[in-house]
Amino acid sequence: MASAAQWFEGSRPRTYPNAIAPVIAGTGAAGWLGDIVWWKAVLALVVSVALIIGVNFANDYSDGIRGTDDDRVGPMRLVGSKVATPRSVKTAAIAAFAVAGIAGLALAVTSAWWLVLVGLGCIAAAWYYTGGRNPYGYSGFGEIAVFVFFGLVAVCGTQFVQAETIDWVGLLSAVAVGSYSSAVLVANNLRDIPTDTESGKITLAVRLGDKRTRTLHAVLVIVPSVVSLVLIAATPWALLGLVAAPLAFKANAPVRGGAGGPALIPALALTGLAMLLWSIGTAIGLLLA
């Protein structure tokens, strides 16, 4: 039976910034419009964190029963390493999705009914990333899904439930966070190209190949800094987002340096931290404005 520490590691804490950053950025965008509602921000955070834990456990379960995780070079997987049964990991995923659903329903009731449909779409996308007969994560669409759901939907959704509208500042912030979030997955899939190719998991990195995947990561971590420059049109304080640029440059170092396997793991963590730092800096700038 897996220990509490192993369950925590299995939830993939390095991906938590992907859930926290969009809520911070979206709240900053709502503050730019003068409409922060803190309790809704907290509920949005619960939804986002529960969803990412759910998708991580669902991914662990689906990849584990397919045998994709049998020869991993990254952090431990619960099913693949056989420290937890597939059924228990699947149950943990469903529980996380339930928490996200309850918090999301509370937001929908107090904001807009159609958010229920958005929430159902998020849960379905989370499950079918590696679940079902034809998981889209095995066809090269994982990065697009991450950009959409942990970028556009999460940031714009957080702004909407508080300000009851979405403006260009929120949309650009969503593009920046989505780019960082996708870059985390790109680094992960770059590391796993050899094992994914062998197991038949055709990720975007497998499709692009090593060299072009490294270029893609560089482009994605540059986009948020460009967004910060564009947001000057809203307020010069948006330049606070550039505080993340040095960390993003450092995150890309193993990628552009040709590192592979476990040597790419720091790129995942640093890209996530850069995303979090960008969101905090930008949110503070928008609030100061």
UniProtKB/TrEMBL annotation:
It is a multi-pass membrane protein. It catalyses: an all-trans-polyprenyl diphosphate + 1,4-dihydroxy-2-naphthoate + H(+) = a 2-demethylmenaquinol + CO2 + diphosphate. It comes from the Bacteria. Pathway: Quinol/quinone metabolism; menaquinone biosynthesis; menaquinol from 1,4-dihydroxy-2-naphthoate: step 1/2. Keywords: Cell membrane, Membrane, Menaquinone biosynthesis, Transferase, Transmembrane, Transmembrane helix. Belongs to the MenA family. Type 1 subfamily. The chain crosses the membrane at residues 36-58, 89-106, 112-129, 141-162, 168-187, 216-243, 263-288. The lineage of its organism: Bacteria, Bacillati, Actinomycetota, Actinomycetes, Mycobacteriales. One of its GO terms (molecular function) is 1,4-dihydroxy-2-naphthoate polyprenyltransferase activity. Gene3D superfamilies: UbiA prenyltransferase. It is found in: Cell membrane; Membrane. Pfam families: UbiA. Its EC number is 2.5.1.74. It is an enzyme of class 2 (transferase). Conversion of 1,4-dihydroxy-2-naphthoate (DHNA) to demethylmenaquinone (DMK). This is 1,4-dihydroxy-2-naphthoate octaprenyltransferase. InterPro entries: MenA, UbiA_prenyltransferase, UbiA_sf, UBIAD1. The gene is menA.
